[in-house]
């Protein structure tokens, strides 16, 4: 089945609606980074990622590792779209006993391949998955999404160095560069500079895109799919809180739920 860019954009918008609804219902969560990432995630699930809803533990499925795991509402919204979750599942977000907890957790949620917590670990986990795929003689691809604030973590750069050394061509990293982290703008917390050239200096191939342009997203995913023995990174320039005017580029909404009035305004804008 071929999904058009317009259909993907419509899917991403439905995900945005559900992201805001579940965070409002929980009165807690991380809307900003979920909204910045959802176009990229929708493009990946809608066109490339190989999985089986009826067999979530299928060995040869592609892996998607959400290293910035606090953006779990983005994952739950897309897992609902593709059939892993019911609306009642994600509307129980952050409640005791829910399969949709604050950070993604592979023990509880079908379709989740990595239990997230502290930042910086996802690419290392993905590198291990890439080694396992090679040992299994499998063509499965390993996709890892990290935040730009997360690139301040030393462990990430150890994995970047190791990926080149071990010729991890089946490893693909998506950087959600929304320029805001937990407390403030990345430039105020600790500037990370020219990420593209830094990655290239570690012998990664890099493609920089507008992370909200579906055409560019799909083109970059197709580019990254090709395994030429070199790890690849999609550096996606995004807007924190994308799609909701009062959340866009607003550090306050890194980890703050909308109130009733803000929910109403957000639903009007997304509709």
Could you please describe the fold and organization of this structure?
By secondary structure, this protein is of the alpha/beta class. The chain has one domain: Rossmann fold. Helices cover 42% and strands 11% of the residues. The protein has 10 helices and 5 strands; from the N terminus they run ααβαααβαβααβαβα. It has helices at residues 5-26, 31-47, 72-82, 87-90, 122-135, 154-165, 186-190, 195-201, 214-225, 260-270; strands at 63-66, 142-147, 171-177, 205-210, 232-237. Strands 1-2-3-5-4 form a 5-stranded parallel sheet, with helices on both faces. The longest helix is centred in the first third of the chain and has 22 residues, at 5-26. The chain is globular, with a radius of gyration of 17 Å. The model has no long low-confidence stretch (mean pLDDT 97).
Please identify the top-level CATH class. Answer: Alpha Beta
The major β-sheet equals: 5 strands, parallel
Number of strands: 5
- Supply the number of helical segments: 10
On the 0 to 100 scale, the average pLDDT is 97
Structural class: alpha/beta
Distance between the termini: 26 Å
Shape: globular
Record the strand order, biggest sheet: 1-2-3-5-4
Which percent bin holds the helix content?
40-55%
Q: Could you state the CATH homologous superfamily?
A: Thiamin diphosphate (ThDP)-binding fold, Pyr/PP domains
Named CATH architecture: 3-Layer(aba) Sandwich
- The ordered H/E elements are HHEHHHEHEHHEHEH
Sequence stretches where pLDDT stays below 50 over 5 or more residues: none
CATH fold naming: Rossmann fold
- How many individual domains? 1
The whole-angstrom Rg is: 17 Å
> Strand fraction band?
5-15%
């Amino acid at each position: 089945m071929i999904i058009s860019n317009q259909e993907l954009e419509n899917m991403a918008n439905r995900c945005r609606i559900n992201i805001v609804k579940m965070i409002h219902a929980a009165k807690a969560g991380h809307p900003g980074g979920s909204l910045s990432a959802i176009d990229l995630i929708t493009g990946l699930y809608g066109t490339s990622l190989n999985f089986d809803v009826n067999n979530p533990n299928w060995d040869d499925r592609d892996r998607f590792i959400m290293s910035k795991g606090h953006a779990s509402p983005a994952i739950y919204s897309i897992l609902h779209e593709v059939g892993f979750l019911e609306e009642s599942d994600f509307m129980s977000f952050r409640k005791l006993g829910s399969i949709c907890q604050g950070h993604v957790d592979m023990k509880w949620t079908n379709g989740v391949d990595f239990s997230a917590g502290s930042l910086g670990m996802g690419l290392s986990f993905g590198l291990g998955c890439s080694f396992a795929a090679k040992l299994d003689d499998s063509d499965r691809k390993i996709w890892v999404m990290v935040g730009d604030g997360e690139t301040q973590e030393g462990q990430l750069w150890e994995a970047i160095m190791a990926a080149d050394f071990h010729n991890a061509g089946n490893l693909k990293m998506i950087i959600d560069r929304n320029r805001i982290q937990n407390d403030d703008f990345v430039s105020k917390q600790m500037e990370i500079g020219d990420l593209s050239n830094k990655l290239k200096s570690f012998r990664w191939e890099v493609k920089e895109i507008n992370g909200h342009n579906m055409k560019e997203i799909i083109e970059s995913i197709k580019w990254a799919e090709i395994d030429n023995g070199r790890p690849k990174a999609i550096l996606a320039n995004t807007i924190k809180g994308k799609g909701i005017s009062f959340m866009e580029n607003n550090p306050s909404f890194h980890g703050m739920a909308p109130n009733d009035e803000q929910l109403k305004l957000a639903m009007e804008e997304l509709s």
